[in-house]
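FIELD: query
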Amino acid sequence: MSPTLFRHKNFRFFFFSREESRKHIHVTSPEGEAKFWVEPKVALAHSSGLSSRALNELEKIIEERKDEISASWKKHFGN
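FIELD: result
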C-alpha cells in the first residue's frame, strides 16, 4: 500500500508502506520521481528524471509541510 499524502501540480507525495524506518517521502510525476529524507532535515535521497528546478520546488514544499508529513508518518506507521 502506498498512501497518497497530498498532490501539488502534477506531483504525488506518498509513502511506501513496507520500506526503511527512516522518515522519508516519495514524489512522482510524469517527468520522474524522487525520494526525500524528512529527518533529521529535509534532503534529497535520490531522483530520476526531474530537473533541478523541480527538485528545488519539491524540497521547499516538503519543508513547508514537514509537520503534516511527520504527523501522517506517525499515523500510518505508528512510531
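FIELD: remark
The longest strand covers residues 24-29.
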